User: Fold this.
Amino acid sequence: MLKDLRELPRTVWPRAVVYGGIAAVLIGVPSDLIDTPIFGRPVAVRWLDYVILAATSALIGLILAIRPSPSSEAGTEAAVERQGTATLWGGFVSFLAVGCPVCNQAIVALVGVSGALAWWAPVQPVVGLIALGLLLWTLRKRLRSYSATACPIPA
Assistant:
């Protein structure tokens, strides 16, 4: 996979930085990792939350920056659509992984505030690893579809 990343055209990297920055803002602002007056967080941010935010945002940026051209073959467009759905799910799962445990209304409704702190907060790093795994799998699929559909540029 690293070889495939090194072979990407130079135009992909600026797009990846922009898309990754947008993903970081979309995940970091509502989870209050990026401090704004709009959102608050009663539970302190862990250092691991920043690591998960940076890694998932970078992967989302790379996935979105690598856009294979749809070919006339049946199923290629569906494969790109599945990759987009997996990227969306990866972003959502990473939001759950870095979000405040007591601000997650679904978790609080299921197990209460004390359950959210005692049960959900320790599980969040595992959820972050699941998000990273999903995004790495999607990036691998995207790189394969890119190399299968990209046209070689004459030297």
In short: The first helix runs from residue 2 to 6. The CA atoms of residues 124 and 139 lie 22 Å apart. The chain has a mean pLDDT of 84.
